[in-house]
Write a structure and sequence with these properties.
This protein has 493 residues and is of the alpha+beta class. The chain folds into three domains: 299 residues, no CATH class; 110 residues, no CATH class; 59 residues, Arc Repressor Mutant, subunit A (Orthogonal Bundle), CATH 1.10.10. The chain is 40% helix and 20% strand. The chain is built from 16 helices and 16 strands. A nine-stranded mixed beta sheet has the order 2-6-7-10-1-11-12-13-14. A hairpin with a 6-residue loop joins β8 and β9. α8 crosses α9.
């Protein structure tokens, strides 16, 4: 939003996120959810195809996952909830209704803390997290001969467990909405309930946005935005809609409550249909499913499965003396955070030193290895935390130099062998005795007479050139302090 628009109006944003759960079977039947790449309509049965006379059965793991999600989002977990039928007719809805939840969701009244760069942290309210089933997919095609369009239905996705996470209208900028989504996805991945990948469609976001004159309390007329498949698309769609609505209001027009779609290629939203209200869906209790009654024991089992969450990890690492950047990057994924913790625990000696060394290596050499290939993750790294800790300890004890340690790490990623084995076989142990190094030092001085003369004439920086020559000849094995002392001694004689 431009400065002029921001001064005149306040933006109000609420997000509805649909998130597929990574259960092995669907929400109300035993069909496999591993349908990615499968032929259309091959992971189906009478239940998910909506045949008459069939009876759904609740997936217990999906209920455990939604309880874990609610706890991670600081929600109240209802002891009593129920499923409802959400009635609407669309080709991807096999039964003519969707099994969802309406007035009694599993989770409600939670919050998620966000922090846009340069601003203070803010809590965004979570209205509800409810359970439902996903729909089938429509595949739109064009006949090459006639040019006429048609659609095909693939039922494989129908019935996949789907959580809907509904925020309060507490966000005020597109940047806050993006940060909310990033942090929500991070939590869902940390607790292991969803892949939460927008590009693959298992993490989908609809946004509700309205404007009101700055300083007023009443909400303006909201517009729903769909068809956003990336965090950037959500941000850009909201930014466009802010400007569009502000222009309408300034000209004396009225905002129409409607659903608009984001057209990424044109960077605009376009009208799709008038926005439905809850009563348009004619909700009523699902007669084929019993109410959900979650015992305190069930909820506590779900709580016990939660790992240390990202915000708590960041605060812990900050308390250990790491910087904001280090703590945020190390806790970006659960995989990286747990790898780092294991490395630090395995490094012998001083704990404060181990904390910093572990961060340097995980963010440095380990991070470079992961980023060197598209799609590569820490799970593929053949260097275990204990093996990396052994390498770090060897460098710290001066058994090998820092330069050699990096070379050894690269060899470890290729072979999976330990640092000790690689160092011994390749003869990479550090050269520290003056007897070993004197010949290399004299050779470097003879091969670089100008640098030697420059140093003798008072140019201290020339020593670095001579040190580089020695380190190159010794393949990085020479002790830098010993090399520096020997060079000074030789050059002064």
């Amino acid at each position: 939003m431009t400065t002029a628009v921001a001064t005149e109006f306040e933006t109000v944003i609420g997000l509805e996120v649909h998130c597929q759960l990574i259960t092995r079977s669907k929400m109300f039947c035993g069909c496999s959810t591993a349908y990615s790449g499968a032929a259309p309509n091959t992971h189906v049965c009478p239940v998910c195809m909506g045949m008459p006379g069939v009876l759904p059965v609740i997936n217990e793991q999906a209920i455990e996952y939604i309880a874990m999600t609610g706890l991670a989002l600081n929600c109240h977990i209802a002891e009593f909830s129920k499923f409802d039928r959400k009635n609407y007719h669309y080709p991807d809805l096999m039964k003519g209704y969707q099994v969802s939840q309406y007035d009694l969701p599993v989770c409600k009244d939670g919050w998620l803390e966000i922090q846009v760069e340069g601003e203070a942290p803010r809590r965004i309210g979570i209205t509800r997290v409810h359970m439902e089933e996903d729909t089938a997919r429509l595949l739109h095609r064009v006949d090459a001969a006639t040019g006429e369009g048609y659609s095909l239905v693939d039922v494989n996705r129908s019935g996949t467990p789907l959580m809907e996470i509904v925020s309060e209208p507490d966000m005020r900028t597109p940047a806050e909405a993006r940060d909310y989504l990033v942090r929500l996805r991070q939590i869902l991945r940390y607790i292991g309930v969803s892949d939460a990948n927008m590009e693959e469609g298992n993490f989908r976001c609809d946004a509700n946005v309205s404007l009101r004159p700055r300083g007023t309390a009443a909400f303006g007329t909201k517009v729903e935005i769909k068809n956003m498949n990336s965090f950037r698309a959500v941000h850009d769609a909201l930014a466009f809609e802010e400007i569009r609505q502000a222009a309408v209001l300034r000209e004396g027009g009225k905002i129409v409550q409607e659903t608009r779609g984001w057209v990424d290629e044109r960077q605009v939203t376009v009208s799709q249909r008038s926005k439905e209200e809850a009563n348009d869906y004619r909700y009523f209790p699902e007669p084929d499913l019993p109410p959900l009654e979650l015992s305190r024991e069930f909820v506590e089992r779900a709580r016990a499965r939660l790992p240390e969450l990202p915000a708590a990890r960041r605060e812990r690492l900050l308390g250990l003396g790491l910087s904001e950047h280090e703590a945020a990057t190390l806790t970006e994924t659960r995989e990286r955070a747990e790898y780092y913790d294991a490395v630090v625990a395995a490094i012998p000696g001083d704990r404060a030193r181990a904390i910093k060394l572990g961060a340097n290596w995980v963010l440095g050499e380990v991070g470079r290895w992961v980023n060197a290939a598209p799609g590569r993750t820490l799970a593929a790294l053949p260097v275990t935390p204990a093996a990396l800790a052994e390498l770090i300890a060897m460098a710290e004890s001066a058994a090998i130099t820092g330069a050699v340690a990096k070379e050894v790490f690269e060899k470890m990623t290729e072979s999976g062998e330990s640092a000790t084995v690689i160092v011994e076989r390749a003869g990479l142990a550090q050269m520290g005795g003056s007897g070993e190094l004197e010949g290399f030092v004299r050779k470097a001085i003879e091969a670089n007479p100008k640098a030697a003369a420059d140093f003798r004439s008072g140019k201290e920086a020339a020593l670095n050139s001579l040190m580089g020559a020695v380190m190159k000849e010794t393949r990085g094995r020479a002790n830098p302090d010993a090399v520096r002392d020997l060079l000074r001694k030789e050059l002064s004689e």
